[in-house]
Amino acid sequence: MTVWDRPEPPTRPTPLDRERIVAAAIALADEGGLEAVSLRKVAARLDAGPMRLYGYISTKEELFDLMVDEVHAEILPEERPGDWREALRGHAHRTRRATLRHEWLADLLGGRLTLGPNALAVSETMLSALDGLADVDTVMRAVATVSAYTTGAIRREIADLRSERATGLSKLDWQRAHGPHVSRMLATGRFPALAKAMHEGAEVDAETSFSTGLEWVLDAVATKLAPLPG
Amino acid sequence: MTVWDRPEPPTRPTPLDRERIVAAAIALADEGGLEAVSLRKVAARLDAGPMRLYGYISTKEELFDLMVDEVHAEILPEERPGDWREALRGHAHRTRRATLRHEWLADLLGGRLTLGPNALAVSETMLSALDGLADVDTVMRAVATVSAYTTGAIRREIADLRSERATGLSKLDWQRAHGPHVSRMLATGRFPALAKAMHEGAEVDAETSFSTGLEWVLDAVATKLAPLPG
DNA sequence: CTCATGTCGATACACTGTATCGATGCCTTA
DNA sequence: TAAGGCATCGATACAGTGTATCGACATGAG
Q1: Average of pLDDT values for A79-93?
Q2: In angstroms, rounded to a whole number, what is the distance separating the alpha carbons of residues A36 and A20?
């Protein structure tokens, strides 16, 4: 019996921590969407049994919360924004880009309060960028309104994206793609405005679309923050 | 052997249809949230085996789509709106109220394209209310922007609601409620703007909150539809 | 009356999140 | 150093999920 024959001692498994668990979960979600994230698969990626995870998280929902907060680290601005408008605009675009990198985020955005350290830091930077420009309630309203638009617009964009991907067709073939159903509906003549929009609407790229709406909302916020004197 | 002894013929089960299936699913979701909706439970409500449903729907996702479209019937305006602003405002508020009646809708809103007849009809009324007030692209942008705000704001409101419900406490006790975590965070002094907002912010009811943000967005739309001459 | 055909739904499968609790290793004490 | 008690950890088990499969059945034709 030499050392070579002696079996390895039962490999002390790598100790886990939340960070590694969340990273594994995010990797899975990036690859296969949220529904590809199961505690068993996350654990498997870390050479552990499923129950191992329950020492670090107490529920799958909590894991999702941690994932969302982790991505918020990517949403934190790298440098101090110039003014409030740039702060809000930057936040919206960073959120959008993060969601394009992690599409599953669209399924979670706005679904639960996110109170992790990164999410709080993000809120902090937005609020502080507006601090002093109006009373507290107006400032909060401004942040909430822009965030609501951002959440809604991003979800919509991702929904479109998935739909296109599923049919494998561009928006031009959209009607045909969605089977006879929509075409038939439009053909009934019951939806003239919709039909007109479908036929005459220009095809704008998603980023421009997002941006345009965002600027509208920012314009609105501007008038509330600095109402015209008089 | 009398007629009384003769066993009942195997009860021809009530024939199903999509409508009854969707109604059962909505009832379940209203009672216990989306995750209470399982094909087995839906089927059980209709005295059927699970596989019975697959004659009418081909996937659980499809059932969700049908549920969403069904609720859109409640969102259709009852009477022709006075002007574009009332049309958009009405739609937003009806969507909000429908979501308060069917909280699970918040989980689905904006998550997938909804192309059912009711959803199409809703889009039609919104687009037609704006028809002619600007070029097609601006009109579509207006509808999309208001819808995005609506989706995002509603999701946020429901998330808050659930959070409050889970802790059983009002927003006043919010910090304490969310355990030491948030309080500790705020106490670190790393989030002064957030702390200020928490302490000085007035407690406004959800509807007012929703309304205020909505009017801001509508103001923005107004300036794009009817730009000042010059 | 027999047989072919097509439909329908019971059974089965692979997988989920998580409660339970016996085995295991560790630390303390004699 | 040896033994004992304790806490921790994770394998097993459970109740449930969505849905593929395919045998049994009812139905229609010959």
Answers
A1: 94
A2: 17
